[in-house]
Amino acid sequence: MDTYDIFLYAGYGLVIAGAFFAIVMPLIKSLDNPKSLLKTVVGIIGIVVLFFIAYSISSNEVLPKFEADPFNLTPTGSQFVGGMLITTYVLAIVALVGIVFTELNKAIK
Q: What domain of life is recorded for the organism (predicted)?
């Protein structure tokens, strides 16, 4: 095990620790104000609903070169990836529209 492996595992550990604290600390803070927790739950439910809509409209077609090694992609996996991509595209477009709307609203006021 050389230095690259050690630093790589340390990086994995830091990412996991950061993700854990990014999820747990706001939950602990929101116990003081349960209404803020309700807003978070509504947002998560909205994203899950958006994903299932995107999953249902995505294709499960797999090209022959992706069915073999090293990919071993199944139709279900292909549809899942398509759903994730569509969800990402929709959320990115919503974010861009929100940014433009906010800037135009600031300029008008």
A: Bacteria
Same domain, 62 and 103: yes
How many domains is the chain partitioned into structurally? 2
Interatomic CA distance for residues 77 and 83, integer angstroms: 10
Mark whether 17 and 38 lie in a shared domain. no
Give the tens place of pLDDT for each residue, 26-75.
888 888 887 878 888 899 999 999 999 999 999 999 888 888 888 888 99
Sign (positive or negative) of CA dihedral 58, 60, 66, 70: positive
Q: What angle do CA 40, 45, 51 make, to 5 degrees?
A: 130
Buried b (16+ CB within 10 A) or exposed e, 48-61: eebbeebbeebeee
- For the entire predicted model, the pTM comes to 0.72
24 lies in the same domain as 61: no
Residue 57 tokens, joined: 């409209």
What tokens appear for 60 in the block? Answer: 């499960």
